[in-house]
Amino acid sequence: MINIRQLAKDLKLPYIRDNFEQIVSEARHTKPDYEQFLLNYLELECQKRMENGITRRLHEAKFPLKKYLVDFDRTKYDSAFLPKFEELETLEFIEQKENIILIGTPGAGKTHYAIALGISACLAGKSVLFASVPNLIIELKEAMSNLQISHFRRRFERYHLVILDELGYVSFDKASCEMLFNLLSSRNDKGSIIITTNLMFDRWEDVFGDPTLTGAMIDRLAHKAHIPRVFPSLFHFLHAGYTPMIAFAEAIF
């Protein structure tokens, strides 16, 4: 026999599926008019869907730990930097498909801030992927071996925000660098990327090996990018031979 629970399941109405008995019981006591009863139910159903969506997006993002903007210690930064934090935390950079490159020494707060922005994006309805760069290279190689690189690339491109952590901790062979370059190039202008790294731009060649590939990589990532000098100083950048790329960045302190 068809029942309310089954119909709610078929219609993908999780709140009424799990709570219809309570809904009916309360209605018998409060006796709302039909319109108010329907409005109350629809509001609760929408709230449930929003909560389920947030849970799903946080799960799919694969954050290694939960970090929140409210816990990010801004007291150790000069007050002049606070407007930049406020600007990034509006998440407007995602709407504009801009990148953020956070460069600093270990313990500077780069990963915390990147994850916190990612969680805020999930709460705002944006799809997010977090991956360490070494693990991403491994996944790329596996996709290549399984002849699934096209599927991997399409899935990578669909996220509103991709966070790539720990660029610079491990160097890669030429094939790996080329795969990473092609992957990031295919995503260019399709969504935002946040990169955390302990290396100034003039040291990226240590990771990618090839100076031409390194320059092209920086050019794609730094164009339309926010590169806050709140984490390191940009002094070295201006003397590293990458000044043209930095000049095109839209939001340097």
Name the descriptors.
disordered C terminus; Rossmann fold; 6-stranded parallel β-sheet; alpha/beta; elongated
Concise synopsis of the structure shown:
With 253 residues, the protein is α/β, with parallel strands linked by helices. 54% of the residues lie in helices and 11% in strands.
Question: How many distinct domains?
Answer: 2
What about the largest sheet?
Answer: 6 strands, parallel
**CATH class group of the largest domain:** Alpha Beta
Q: Please identify the structural class as seen in this structure.
A: alpha/beta
Element-level helix/strand string: HHHHHEHEHHEHEHHEHE
Low-confidence stretches: 232-253
Would you tell me which CATH topology of the largest domain applies?
A: Rossmann fold
Task: Please list the strands of the largest sheet in the order they lie side by side.
Answer: 2-3-4-1-5-6
CATH superfamily of the largest domain: P-loop containing nucleotide triphosphate hydrolases
Rg estimate, integer Å: 23 Å
According to DSSP, the number of beta strands is 6
The proportion of residues forming helix, as a percent range, comes to 40-55%
**Average predicted confidence as pLDDT:** 86
